[in-house]
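Example: Peptidase M20 dimerisation domain-containing protein.
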Amino acid sequence: MPISRSLLMRSILPAFTACLLAACAATPAWPDAAESAALDEARSQAELTAYLSDSLWDWAELGYQEEKSSTLLQETLADAGFTVTPGVADIPTAFVAEYGSGGPVIALLAEMDALPGINQSALPTRKGVNGKLAGHACGHNLFGAGSVSAAIAIRNWLEESGTPGRIRVYGTPAEEGGSGKVYMVRAGLFEDVDIAIHWHPGDRNSAAANTTLANRSAKFRFSGISAHAAGAPEQGRSALDGVEAMNMMANMMHEHIPQDARMHYVITSGGSAPNVVPDFAEVFYYVRHPSPDGVEAIWSRLENAARGAAQGTGTEVEWEVIHGNNPLLVNETLALLMDEKLRIVGGVEYTEAELEFAETISTTLANQSLPLSSASEVQPFEVSLGYGSTDVGDVSYAVPTVGLRTATWVPGTPAHSWQAVAASGTSIGHKGTQVAAETITLAAVELFTNEDLRKKARTEFDEARGPDYEYKSLLGDRDPPLDYRK
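Written out as structure tokens, the predicted fold is:
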């Protein structure tokens, strides 16, 4: 099983202080000839980065429905000379694209899905777009675009330098609650990969080694008996009562779960009219904890709450597990490499127009602790626990994995907000994405040419997993939930 948070911290904290001081004090190294050539290639892709990210932003397609977004990314890679395999892992919008031969395999992850129920124009004030039901509030339009443009830059460098190796792009749908990468891991698509690289939009530039929470979700569906709510209430059994009873018990559970755990829900269906006792209701739950075992323990209690709610309200309940992710297994060797390359590239410099946008949007943010100038800075290196979850976690237990965040949003912007949607559709988002693409390109050059570094990362990875590690998916053996957003 994946290592626990306490074991993780015991294994990495002894080196933490020294690494933090070294990273903070170090002067960024000047790129060598190979890195300079690759960096030029990455910078030459800036126009493509903007085009791809804006296209995905406009479409804002939900998980497993990213037909146009996936097609555009595949076509772009095919035009650049990649061999593209679409529809992998029984997911129509998932793909693998590869260029090169021999040498190590370096994989770049490319997300593309938007979030439902959030809609915003590319303006610094709250204004939706008529008829648009989703938005890139987590910036996956930028994620997919930056990874693809970086892959093309790396591909060009491989060809021009004659370096042996393969650069591979994984088009990974439905990160937002669909666990697309888990099915790709389960299908064995990462078995020959040496290193996997990911990145994520954010409100700051950082290559910190942050782990995440394991999580699982399910839709709990209650069935009752419909009746006239006034004329024959005694004949009805409200499915909504079942949902509300379950929610009440779950809310009381919050007092009695570990401090680092998280549990949240939305009622996705509660009936259609007050004077009709609803015979169907549904509630969608997430459970998170630093360890998979912790998720399992809380989950069994949540299932019991569902059973008790059904029994107490005279209804029936069943549930469908929608997704499940393992926590992110950090690799400090690779994280320090990424931090070094990020410091070479630097942060985001605003134009006067961008600064005006940032100042306006900043007035709408609850967290104004980060100055706008921090977008141009790289945050200190650290090792810590994050409270989000991602299906990159499952990839990180299949292959040594490293990532970074860049300032694609105005400092202080939370993910899953209208402010994140707005900035993700502007030049601020483009610039942050370009920082990521350039940093990834430099890291890839180092990884292709430094065998000792790859071996060191692999040794750390093997030791962290342990000799008896066996992969276990938190979503079980279910097929991809291709209709979970419909």
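The chain has 14 helices and 16 strands.
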